[in-house]
Amino acid sequence: MKTMSLNSYGGDSVFELAEIAKPEVRPGHVIVKIAATSVNTVDTMIRSMGADLPLSPELPAVLGMDFAGTVEAVGADVTGFAVGDEVYGCAGGLMALQGALAEFICADARLIAHKPKSLTMREAAALPLVGITAYEGLTRAGVSQGQKVLIQGGAGGVGHVAVQLAKHMGADVTATGTGAAQMTLMADLGAQPVDFMSTKTADIVATQTGGAGFDVVFDTVGGANMTNSFEAAKLNGHVATTVALLEIDLTPAHFKGLSLHVVFMLLPMMHNVGREVHGAILKTLAEIADAGALKPILDEQNFGFADVTEAHARLESGQAVGKVVIDI
Questions:
Q1: Taking the model in full, what pTM does it have?
Q2: Measuring CA to CA, which residue among 205, 113, 115, 89 is closest to residue 152?
C-alpha cells in the first residue's frame, strides 16, 4: 500500500511517497481503508523533535493519529464492527503503531467507534484526538448544568470542541482568543468571547462571574498561561490543562484549594491501558454530534495525500482556523 512516510526527523524534514506491506488483520483489530486524516500539534512535534520525544516511531515512520474510513476486515474477538462499517478513531502514529498517513491501518477495535452519521469523513477525521481530550478534561473537572466554565484557547482544535461540549453539558461558557475571526467563531459556538490581548484575567472574572471565579477553567494554552487559569478559578474550583510541561509555582492553586487535572489522551495508546475508554468516548461524541450539538470546524484549505508536508506547515503557521484535514 501507499504511505506518506518520514525518512528523517527535524524541522525541515518532508514526507515522501513510499510503498510498504499492507497490514494483516490481527485478533482484536480491524483493517480500515482510510478516507481522511487530520493533523494535530503532536504530529508536528513528533516530526520536528523525533527521538527527543519518547513516543516517536522509529524511522522510516508513518505518522497520523486521527482517521475516518471504512472497515475492510475484522479480526478474531472483535464484536460490534462489520465489513463496510464507517468508523473513526485515534489509533496510530506513535511508537510501534503505524499511523494514518496510509491507504490502510490496522486499528485496535477498542480505540474506534462508528462514525457520526451527521458528519462527513473529513469532519469525522478531525474529531478523535481533540474530542477525546476535550471530553476527558471537562468530565474529569466535573462540568455540570449551570456551572460557569472558562475555556482558554476556545478557537483552537481542542478548545472549539470543548466549548461545544461544555454547552451541551449545560454550562455557561466563556472562551478566550484573539482577533476578529476567533471572536466570531467562539460566539457562533455559543460562548461569550473574550480577547485575552486586551482584557485582563481579573476583568474577565469580574465581568463574567461577579468576582467569584469560574467553577472550571479548561486551559488548552497551558505553559505560563496556567497562572492566569489559577487566577480565574473560584475557591475549591477545578483547572484542567492539556499543556503542563513546565515548572510553575502552585502557591495560588494552594491558597484557593484548586484541583488540577492534567489531560494527556495518548496514554491508552502508549501503554495499552484503558483503550476501551477511548472507544466509549468516541461513541458518546458521535451521539452528541448526531444530536446536533457538536461539529468540528475545518480549515478552509484542502490537502491531498501528496500534500502532507504542506498540511503540517499550515498547522504550524498558526493561520489555520479549525482542524487541518488531509484526504487520503
A1: 0.96
A2: 205
| pLDDT reading at 46 higher than 90 | yes
Distance CA 166, CA 162 (A): 6
Q: How far apart are CA 230 and CA 130, in angstroms?
A: 23
Rounded distance between C-alpha atoms, residue 54 and residue 177, angstroms: 31
Among residues 125, 134, 133, the alpha carbon closest in space to that of 99 is found at 125
Give residue 197's identity as a one-letter amino acid code.
Answer: M
CA geometry: angle 232, 143, 199, nearest 5 deg: 25
* Close Cβ partners of 180 (under 8 Å, ≥ 6 residues apart): none
Instruction: Decide if 201 contacts 174 (C-beta within 8 A).
Output: no
Classify 135 as helix, strand or coil: helix
Q: What are phi and psi of 284, to 5 degrees?
A: -65, -45
Residue 239: how many other CB atoms lie within 10 Å: 25
Sign of CA dihedral 153, 231, 211, 241: positive
Q: What is the dihedral of CA 255, 256, 257, 259, to 10 degrees?
A: -130
**Host H or E run for residue 27:** none
Give the DSSP H or E segment for 87.
Answer: strand 86-90
Q: Which residues pair with 107 in a beta bridge?
A: 30
Cα separation of the two ends of the chain: 12
In tens, the pLDDT along 223-236 reads 889 999 999 999 99
